[in-house]
Amino acid sequence: MREGWKAVPRYDGPHPLLRVFDPAVPDFGESITLVPGRTPDIWWYQASTGEDLAPHNKPSRAAERITRILTPYVTAALAARTHQREATDERRPIPRPHPDQPRATTVAELQQRSGVICWWGTHTEEWWALIPGGTQWKLVNAPDPDALTRAIQNARARH
Questions:
Q1: Does the global pTM surpass 0.85?
Q2: CA triplet 74, 79, 138: central angle to 5 degrees?
Q3: Where would you tag: which of 5, 47, 60, 156 has the fewest CB atoms within 10 A of its CB?
């Protein structure tokens, strides 16, 4: 993609998705799908949060909106990584990505149950979720899926 994002098709769920992420932060990204629009001749690019990004005939507008969604989180992740390296003066090896079907299944179940974006952080070795809430989105993490479900519920209760 023009904005520096990497786009990889995914076929591990019920519908084909396009996973968009920054190669420097491969564990965090957005899954985009095409959904029918209000009229039969127009389909829409849709984010995993359910946000309509752009009609199918305006892919550059969808890319701009993906950039708007991902940039703050990728920036924060890179800043945290830099801060961690400076604080510990240690360079942790970046784990090699590998397909992990049990975790992929758990992520899909967490997302379906909670309705929010969830993922396994291979670098942090923790479960993560991004909870939308207007202009104040929350990022929570936990050591296991059950604890993540509780963290999501607690974050929603405080919102």
A1: no
A2: 55
A3: 60
